[in-house]
Amino acid sequence: MNARDATPRQPAKRRWPRWLRRRPMELLACTVIAAGLLMMLQPFAMALYTASFVTTLSGTVLFMVVSRFPD
């Protein structure tokens, strides 16, 4: 038994798809948050104002999940 056999084998690193990495998904989450804030601050359509809280909340949750993704 040599030293090479005694070391455990490392699993092969699988790479995530490029669109599923942290930076593009964080940009998407920030865009959703910004859209929600713009929807909340506009004075024209009540339907946009009504959906703004859910949009901002979903962008915030998306950002919290995406911050755990690999670089």
How is this structure best summarized?
With 71 residues, the chain is mainly alpha-helical. The protein is 63% helix and 0% strand.
Structure description:
By secondary structure, the chain is mostly helical. The protein is 63% helix and 0% strand. Helix 2 packs antiparallel against helix 3. The longest helix is centred in the C-terminal third of the chain and has 21 residues. The model has no long low-confidence stretch (mean pLDDT 88).
Q: Key features?
A:
mainly alpha; 63% helix; 0% strand; rod-shaped; 3 helices; 71 residues; single chain
Quickly count the domains. 1
How much is the radius of gyration in Å?
A: 21 Å
User: Overall 3D geometry?
Assistant: rod-shaped
How helical, in percent, are the residues? 55-70%
Low-confidence stretches: none
Distance between the termini: 38 Å
SSE pattern, N- to C-terminal: HHH
Strand content: under 5%
Distinct helical segment count: 3
Would you report the number of β strands?
0
Give me the secondary-structure category: mainly alpha
What's the average pLDDT? 88
How would you characterize the largest beta sheet?
A: none
Record the SSE blueprint.
Elements: H1 3-6, H2 22-41, H3 46-66
